[in-house]
């Protein structure tokens, strides 16, 4: 006989996590909901999870054959007991009920060496004061087409090459297109993907709730020992998970919880953020109010120079170390990323219209130069 201290599994892993291990024995529980909400399915999960004794199901609506046919589809997985209160997302599938506990990070910290990770590009490492620190959140920010995804993939590929498992959650680009693009830039991914050292997870629009995505990320970290996670991009994340978010949820708050969880496990996070303006007087680090999440902000920006559209890269913020305050020219070439020396003697770069400044009075203006 079960003692009052022991708990009885509901048969649904996520629900057991929410209930701190299951239901208290010798209690009466009311399952409430509208038609098709999952009441019968949950009851069958509960009965199927019992390994000792005989369960009794009394139905006033469905006949025995229907109940038995439905119960044969159920799969009862083993799971860990968890970090969760409040409202949680639930989905009914052909294998029964799935519950995805809301991710609420705790104060536990996994052991994490304060290691600086190279991006694989010497000049970008110089900008960053050596690289990106393990267990931090970095935001790569810039307008469309400026090179955020390419830079992110460079960092993830470098991590995978040195033996750290890296996972990219792509909300906007199919893996085959991403692989082809990286291959054309001399950044091949095929071997790393085949070895499962690098993994690209496509997230279709309106297919995940924030809780489901957090569950997927948790499995990557806790089962596969993933050490780097990249979200490409924030706007895609908001579009994909926002419509299935529990009523009243702030999607950015859910992202905050996910980042806190990952950092507490020593995981390095990259978030790609698209800003609306290409150039102009108003310079924003991010368009979505996520600057507070970032330990590091790398800003990619277009500039107009000699009637051509050029790109620059710079570091706007870094909490964990000093960094280079200058901007550098940034190019995406068939041979990979090309980053120039610090741009000196230029003014108006952030406005998108750089020009050389003569620092000596009564001196002839310098000859026209290009970045």
From TrEMBL:
It comes from the Bacteria. PROSITE patterns: KAIC. Gene3D superfamilies: P-loop containing nucleotide triphosphate hydrolases. Signal peptide: none annotated. InterPro entries: AAA+_ATPase, Circadian_clock_KaiC-rel, KaiC-like_dom, KaiC_dom, P-loop_NTPase. Pfam families: ATPase (PF06745). SMART domains: AAA. Residues 115-353 form the KaiC domain. PANTHER family: CIRCADIAN CLOCK OSCILLATOR PROTEIN KAIC 1, PTHR42926. This is AAA family ATPase.
